Amino acid sequence: MLSITQTENLTGAKISGDYWDLDEINQSFYAVVGDENKYYDWEGSRQRVLGISNEIRQAIQGERGVNFVSNGLTKESMKHNDIVTSGKNIYYSVEVLWPELIFTSIALNDFARLYAKEHTHPLLDVHIATVRKFQSAVGEALQTILTKSEHTQFMILLSRSETNVQEYAIQFVDMLNLHYINSTKEQRQKNLGSIALKLAVQDKEYEAFRNQVILSANKTKSDIHDMSITQKYPVEIEW
């Protein structure tokens, strides 16, 4: 079963599940975002979704966290079915920064909408259903941190698909990630709601930031999604 829970220091969330849970998420992410340049104006957002997809892929290869979880099999049921096996299943996990995970959930709205246009029965499509399950799990995890009002606002925006990450300045996500890493646990608890809404609504701060990125991109004749930040992420993160 897919599980998304907050980390001890609220730095991010832990995505966990068995091999098939996480592989299902991975395959659906790749399906809805399409091939490179299919949705060129969403390329930056596509890269962020595939960034988490890559983390999940490495997790199911055993390169991140590995836990053993009870599968409910008792000695009596093993005896009844004449089998001898482990009473635990392997669950794989990976931590993702909260701003990154929130943005990915928002971006998936756009990709699900674009993907749905090419399918006759999108409401019954397995990949869209998997994406919605992932978004729902993110929303449930946020409920334990955000105030009731913040959570309600964010979930309304997410459920109505009112978000739009076309030509998004993805460097803004990096800025929020780095600021969030350098905050205290108390500051994270207090500010995550405003960060979630800032990513969903794209306020004046974001617009000013995006204009600066566009200005820099024009000087070098680069695409907005090809611009990078100079500040580096820490090698170790206290989750």
In short:
The chain has 239 residues and is of the alpha+beta class. The chain is 55% helix and 11% strand. It has a four-stranded antiparallel sheet.
Could you explain the architecture of this structure?
This protein is of the alpha+beta class. It has one domain (3-226). Helices cover 55% and strands 11% of the residues. It has nine helices and four strands, in the order E-E-H-H-E-H-E-H-H-H-H-H-H. It has helices at 19-33, 43-60, 75-80, 98-116, 126-142, 148-159, 171-181, 185-201, 204-220; strands at 3-6, 12-17, 65-70, 88-97. A four-stranded antiparallel sheet has the order 1-2-4-3. A hairpin with a 5-residue loop joins strand 1 and strand 2 (12-17). Helix 4 (98-116) packs parallel to helix 8 and helix 6 (148-159) packs parallel to helix 8 (185-201). The protein is globular and about 70 Å long. The two termini are 22 Å apart. The mean pLDDT is 92.
